[in-house]
Amino acid sequence: MTHGTEEPQINHVITSCQDISEQVTRNSTNFHFVFLRLQALMKVVPVLIKNFHFISFILLIGCSVSKDPLRREIKLLQKGKIKEDTSYVYWLPYKEGTTHRVVQGYYSSYSHKNRAALDFKMRPGTPVHAARDGIVIRVVEENNKGGWNKKFRQFANLIVIQHGDNSRTGYWHLQKNGALVNVGDTVKKGQLIGLSGKTGYTAFPHLHFIAWKSGGGGWRPIGTRFLTNKGTKYLRPLRRYKSEH
Question: How far apart are CA 67 and CA 10, in angstroms?
Fold first, then answer.
């Protein structure tokens, strides 16, 4: 996994690959130009090799394939084509002033194919904060297993919080003994509630965040907008967001 000073390199690699791909496409008949751009790409090859699995993952997740009608609505909200301003505004589920990348967004093809959920890349032990006021209704923290195999799904550590409008939010993949709240606790928006990890069905350390709402005879995931340092946003994959409130 990537840590510390490698994060800016990863950002550079993603941007470079996308920019070079677009430039080569526009100038495909100019062989000298293509050669120069390929030379530029070779400069980031060491980072590509070192972080092959992670970069492959984040380059693949942008393709959404779910047929859920909510998927189209969320995509339009993310792009600002639907001006919706009545839903609840959540705080980002991490410490104010810190920044994390959304490595998988709503209905992404990797493991969110039919889920309106978000994955934030986090090192194990990163503080997790409540995105909204509520009451803790479920806590699991005794597990210490995780990996990219469905057999690990049962070992996810998690926290679920019930909210006043009969919606819920869930925080998944916490580290062992990483829940800092108990069932029945009342939590405030922004309160420290846990520590991120890599338990359950997951390829690398991250926080899986999901919100549900009751209706139509069951529970269904919902898209959520967040307060960021750049205003209120529906988060998009591969982008970094700073918590500010």
Answer: 31
